[in-house]
Design a protein that fits this description.
It is built from no helices and eleven strands. By secondary structure, it is mainly β.
Length: 124
Amino acid sequence: VQIVESGGGSVQPGASLRLSCVISGFPWNRYGLRWYRQAPGKERELVVHMFNTDFTSAGFSTVYEDSVKGRFAADKDNAKKTMYLQMNDLKPEDTGRYYCNLYSVGTVQENNYWGQGTQVTVSS
């Protein structure tokens, strides 16, 4: 299983970025996906959790961390096996390395995978 994040960059406050998380080699249909971020010197924190979903249906549920509600939106493209995180009105406190964490659902044991991350820097 391979997970590749992209779309990060250095932007000014108020800008937008769209992160992508491309999944390959994942053999199960049902899954959950979490976007985490880690700022320098801080612990990794959960930004958004996508669940109640699979690669054959359009719907999904989400839970957002309070500080990103109304600014970030998760989405997906089943055909491309790609997850997106649209980030609007970025703030300096959004700075960090963003990671995808994919896990299987309904399997005998949870299979859990991480990408290498993509860096987001927000500064003026």
